[in-house]
Amino acid sequence: MEKTTITIVDDHKIFRDGLILLLRNFDFVSVVGQAANGQEFLGLIENEAPDIVFMDINMPKMNGIEATKQALQKYPDIKVIALTSFADDEYIEQMISAGVEGYMLKRSNIEDFEKAIKKVADGGSYFSSEIIKVISRNLYKDKERKLGEQLLSNLTSREKEILNLICKGLNNEQIAELINLSPKTVEKHKSNLFQKTATFNTVNLVIYAFKNQLISL
Protein backbone atom coordinates (compact mmCIF):
# COMPACT_ATOMS: atom_id res chain seq x y z
CA MET A 1 0.00 0.00 0.00
CA GLU A 2 1.35 3.41 -0.99
CA LYS A 3 1.93 5.52 2.10
CA THR A 4 0.82 9.11 2.65
CA THR A 5 3.97 11.24 2.92
CA ILE A 6 4.04 13.94 5.59
CA THR A 7 6.22 16.90 6.50
CA ILE A 8 6.01 18.63 9.90
CA VAL A 9 6.70 22.36 10.23
CA ASP A 10 7.01 23.70 13.78
CA ASP A 11 9.61 25.79 15.58
CA HIS A 12 9.60 23.54 18.66
CA LYS A 13 11.75 20.44 18.15
CA ILE A 14 10.17 18.67 21.13
CA PHE A 15 6.75 18.97 19.49
CA ARG A 16 8.07 17.80 16.10
CA ASP A 17 9.72 14.78 17.71
CA GLY A 18 6.54 13.98 19.66
CA LEU A 19 4.35 14.21 16.56
CA ILE A 20 6.74 11.98 14.61
CA LEU A 21 6.51 9.36 17.37
CA LEU A 22 2.71 9.61 17.29
CA LEU A 23 2.57 9.23 13.50
CA ARG A 24 4.67 6.06 13.70
CA ASN A 25 1.53 4.38 15.05
CA PHE A 26 0.03 4.62 11.55
CA ASP A 27 1.29 2.10 9.00
CA PHE A 28 -0.19 4.17 6.15
CA VAL A 29 1.99 7.21 6.92
CA SER A 30 5.61 8.09 6.19
CA VAL A 31 7.22 11.24 7.64
CA VAL A 32 9.60 12.49 4.94
CA GLY A 33 10.69 15.82 6.39
CA GLN A 34 10.58 18.38 9.16
CA ALA A 35 11.34 22.10 9.34
CA ALA A 36 11.64 24.71 12.10
CA ASN A 37 10.05 27.58 10.15
CA GLY A 38 8.33 28.46 6.88
CA GLN A 39 11.52 29.52 5.14
CA GLU A 40 13.23 26.22 5.93
CA PHE A 41 10.12 24.36 4.81
CA LEU A 42 10.06 26.08 1.39
CA GLY A 43 13.66 25.01 0.83
CA LEU A 44 12.89 21.48 1.97
CA ILE A 45 10.06 20.86 -0.50
CA GLU A 46 12.30 21.81 -3.43
CA ASN A 47 13.73 18.29 -3.04
CA GLU A 48 10.59 16.36 -2.03
CA ALA A 49 7.05 17.71 -1.89
CA PRO A 50 4.94 15.67 0.58
CA ASP A 51 1.28 14.74 0.28
CA ILE A 52 0.35 16.50 3.55
CA VAL A 53 2.01 19.19 5.66
CA PHE A 54 1.25 19.77 9.33
CA MET A 55 1.88 23.51 9.55
CA ASP A 56 2.39 25.55 12.71
CA ILE A 57 1.31 29.20 12.50
CA ASN A 58 3.56 31.31 14.76
CA MET A 59 7.18 30.71 13.73
CA PRO A 60 10.32 32.86 13.32
CA LYS A 61 11.68 33.97 9.91
CA MET A 62 8.46 33.02 8.10
CA ASN A 63 5.13 32.13 9.68
CA GLY A 64 2.77 29.35 8.61
CA ILE A 65 0.37 31.67 6.80
CA GLU A 66 2.98 33.00 4.37
CA ALA A 67 4.65 29.58 4.01
CA THR A 68 1.30 28.01 3.09
CA LYS A 69 0.57 30.69 0.48
CA GLN A 70 3.97 30.36 -1.18
CA ALA A 71 4.00 26.56 -1.05
CA LEU A 72 0.56 26.20 -2.64
CA GLN A 73 1.39 28.69 -5.38
CA LYS A 74 4.26 26.47 -6.48
CA TYR A 75 2.93 23.06 -5.42
CA PRO A 76 -0.89 23.23 -5.56
CA ASP A 77 -1.28 19.48 -4.94
CA ILE A 78 0.16 19.71 -1.42
CA LYS A 79 -2.49 19.50 1.32
CA VAL A 80 -1.87 21.65 4.40
CA ILE A 81 -3.33 21.00 7.84
CA ALA A 82 -2.87 23.94 10.19
CA LEU A 83 -1.77 23.15 13.74
CA THR A 84 -2.25 25.59 16.58
CA SER A 85 -2.11 25.71 20.37
CA PHE A 86 -5.02 28.15 20.61
CA ALA A 87 -8.16 28.51 18.48
CA ASP A 88 -7.72 32.16 17.46
CA ASP A 89 -10.37 33.70 15.17
CA GLU A 90 -7.92 35.87 13.23
CA TYR A 91 -5.46 33.07 12.50
CA ILE A 92 -8.24 30.71 11.47
CA GLU A 93 -9.50 33.19 8.86
CA GLN A 94 -5.98 33.83 7.55
CA MET A 95 -4.99 30.18 7.29
CA ILE A 96 -8.24 29.28 5.54
CA SER A 97 -7.66 32.12 3.08
CA ALA A 98 -4.12 30.82 2.53
CA GLY A 99 -5.62 27.50 1.36
CA VAL A 100 -5.44 24.93 4.16
CA GLU A 101 -7.49 21.74 3.92
CA GLY A 102 -7.65 21.17 7.66
CA TYR A 103 -7.25 22.90 10.99
CA MET A 104 -6.70 21.27 14.36
CA LEU A 105 -5.30 21.87 17.83
CA LYS A 106 -1.88 20.52 18.79
CA ARG A 107 -3.41 18.81 21.81
CA SER A 108 -5.70 16.70 19.60
CA ASN A 109 -5.65 12.99 20.37
CA ILE A 110 -4.26 10.25 18.18
CA GLU A 111 -7.69 9.39 16.75
CA ASP A 112 -8.11 12.98 15.55
CA PHE A 113 -4.77 12.93 13.75
CA GLU A 114 -5.69 9.65 12.09
CA LYS A 115 -9.04 11.04 10.91
CA ALA A 116 -7.44 14.25 9.68
CA ILE A 117 -4.77 12.49 7.62
CA LYS A 118 -7.19 10.00 6.06
CA LYS A 119 -9.85 12.58 5.20
CA VAL A 120 -7.45 15.13 3.74
CA ALA A 121 -5.49 12.46 1.83
CA ASP A 122 -8.76 11.26 0.30
CA GLY A 123 -9.60 14.76 -0.94
CA GLY A 124 -11.82 15.83 1.95
CA SER A 125 -11.25 18.38 4.70
CA TYR A 126 -10.89 18.16 8.47
CA PHE A 127 -11.62 20.71 11.19
CA SER A 128 -11.49 19.71 14.83
CA SER A 129 -14.61 20.34 16.87
CA GLU A 130 -12.95 23.17 18.85
CA ILE A 131 -12.10 25.00 15.62
CA ILE A 132 -15.64 24.57 14.28
CA LYS A 133 -17.04 26.10 17.48
CA VAL A 134 -14.80 29.15 17.08
CA ILE A 135 -15.79 29.55 13.44
CA SER A 136 -19.47 29.35 14.34
CA ARG A 137 -19.43 31.36 17.57
CA ASN A 138 -20.68 34.95 17.41
CA LEU A 139 -19.46 35.46 13.85
CA TYR A 140 -22.82 36.44 12.43
CA LYS A 141 -25.53 38.62 13.94
CA ASP A 142 -29.29 38.25 13.48
CA LYS A 143 -29.37 39.81 10.01
CA GLU A 144 -26.74 37.47 8.62
CA ARG A 145 -28.31 34.49 10.41
CA LYS A 146 -31.63 35.25 8.73
CA LEU A 147 -29.84 35.33 5.38
CA GLY A 148 -28.44 31.89 6.21
CA GLU A 149 -31.92 30.61 7.03
CA GLN A 150 -33.20 32.02 3.74
CA LEU A 151 -30.40 30.31 1.82
CA LEU A 152 -31.08 27.02 3.57
CA SER A 153 -34.69 27.17 2.41
CA ASN A 154 -33.42 27.59 -1.17
CA LEU A 155 -31.38 24.38 -1.04
CA THR A 156 -32.93 21.15 -2.24
CA SER A 157 -33.10 18.22 0.15
CA ARG A 158 -30.39 16.47 -1.86
CA GLU A 159 -28.14 19.55 -1.70
CA LYS A 160 -28.64 19.74 2.07
CA GLU A 161 -27.76 16.05 2.38
CA ILE A 162 -24.61 16.44 0.28
CA LEU A 163 -23.59 19.62 2.11
CA ASN A 164 -23.84 17.81 5.43
CA LEU A 165 -21.61 14.98 4.15
CA ILE A 166 -19.09 17.45 2.69
CA CYS A 167 -18.89 19.12 6.10
CA LYS A 168 -18.13 15.72 7.62
CA GLY A 169 -15.03 15.57 5.39
CA LEU A 170 -16.22 13.05 2.78
CA ASN A 171 -15.02 13.35 -0.80
CA ASN A 172 -17.16 12.98 -3.96
CA GLU A 173 -16.60 9.23 -4.36
CA GLN A 174 -17.42 8.49 -0.72
CA ILE A 175 -20.58 10.60 -0.87
CA ALA A 176 -21.65 8.95 -4.13
CA GLU A 177 -21.25 5.46 -2.65
CA LEU A 178 -23.07 6.38 0.55
CA ILE A 179 -26.18 7.86 -1.11
CA ASN A 180 -26.18 5.74 -4.27
CA LEU A 181 -25.36 8.44 -6.81
CA SER A 182 -22.62 8.68 -9.41
CA PRO A 183 -19.59 10.86 -8.55
CA LYS A 184 -20.48 13.00 -11.57
CA THR A 185 -23.95 13.70 -10.13
CA VAL A 186 -22.45 14.54 -6.74
CA GLU A 187 -20.07 16.96 -8.45
CA LYS A 188 -23.02 18.63 -10.18
CA HIS A 189 -24.83 19.13 -6.84
CA LYS A 190 -21.57 20.43 -5.38
CA SER A 191 -21.26 22.96 -8.21
CA ASN A 192 -24.81 24.11 -7.47
CA LEU A 193 -23.84 24.59 -3.82
CA PHE A 194 -20.81 26.66 -4.85
CA GLN A 195 -23.04 28.84 -6.99
CA LYS A 196 -25.76 29.31 -4.36
CA THR A 197 -23.28 30.14 -1.60
CA ALA A 198 -20.87 32.18 -3.77
CA THR A 199 -17.96 29.98 -2.66
CA PHE A 200 -15.21 28.62 -4.88
CA ASN A 201 -13.85 25.47 -3.23
CA THR A 202 -14.75 22.80 -0.70
CA VAL A 203 -13.05 24.37 2.32
CA ASN A 204 -14.73 27.73 1.70
CA LEU A 205 -18.07 25.95 1.34
CA VAL A 206 -17.54 24.13 4.66
CA ILE A 207 -16.62 27.36 6.46
CA TYR A 208 -19.60 29.16 4.91
CA ALA A 209 -21.92 26.38 6.10
CA PHE A 210 -20.60 26.55 9.67
CA LYS A 211 -20.69 30.35 9.81
CA ASN A 212 -24.24 30.56 8.53
CA GLN A 213 -25.44 27.58 10.56
CA LEU A 214 -26.55 25.69 7.47
CA ILE A 215 -25.75 22.41 9.20
CA SER A 216 -26.01 21.16 12.77
CA LEU A 217 -22.76 20.94 14.75
UniProtKB/TrEMBL annotation:
<protein>
    <submittedName>
        <fullName>Response regulator transcription factor</fullName>
    </submittedName>
</protein>
<keyword id="KW-0805">Transcription regulation</keyword>
<dbReference type="InterPro" id="IPR039420">
    <property type="entry name" value="WalR-like"/>
</dbReference>
<dbReference type="GO" id="GO:0003677">
    <property type="term" value="F:DNA binding"/>
</dbReference>
<dbReference type="InterPro" id="IPR001789">
    <property type="entry name" value="Sig_transdc_resp-reg_receiver"/>
</dbReference>
<feature type="domain" description="HTH luxR-type">
    <location>
        <begin position="148"/>
        <end position="213"/>
    </location>
</feature>
<dbReference type="GO" id="GO:0000160">
    <property type="term" value="P:phosphorelay signal transduction system"/>
</dbReference>
<feature type="modified residue" description="4-aspartylphosphate">
    <location>
        <position position="56"/>
    </location>
</feature>
<keyword id="KW-0804">Transcription</keyword>
<dbReference type="InterPro" id="IPR000792">
    <property type="entry name" value="Tscrpt_reg_LuxR_C"/>
</dbReference>
<keyword id="KW-0597">Phosphoprotein</keyword>
<dbReference type="InterPro" id="IPR016032">
    <property type="entry name" value="Sig_transdc_resp-reg_C-effctor"/>
</dbReference>
<dbReference type="Pfam" id="PF00196">
    <property type="entry name" value="GerE"/>
</dbReference>
<dbReference type="InterPro" id="IPR011006">
    <property type="entry name" value="CheY-like_superfamily"/>
</dbReference>
<dbReference type="GO" id="GO:0006355">
    <property type="term" value="P:regulation of DNA-templated transcription"/>
</dbReference>
<dbReference type="InterPro" id="IPR058245">
    <property type="entry name" value="NreC/VraR/RcsB-like_REC"/>
</dbReference>
<feature type="domain" description="Response regulatory">
    <location>
        <begin position="5"/>
        <end position="121"/>
    </location>
</feature>
<keyword id="KW-0238">DNA-binding</keyword>
<dbReference type="Pfam" id="PF00072">
    <property type="entry name" value="Response_reg"/>
</dbReference>
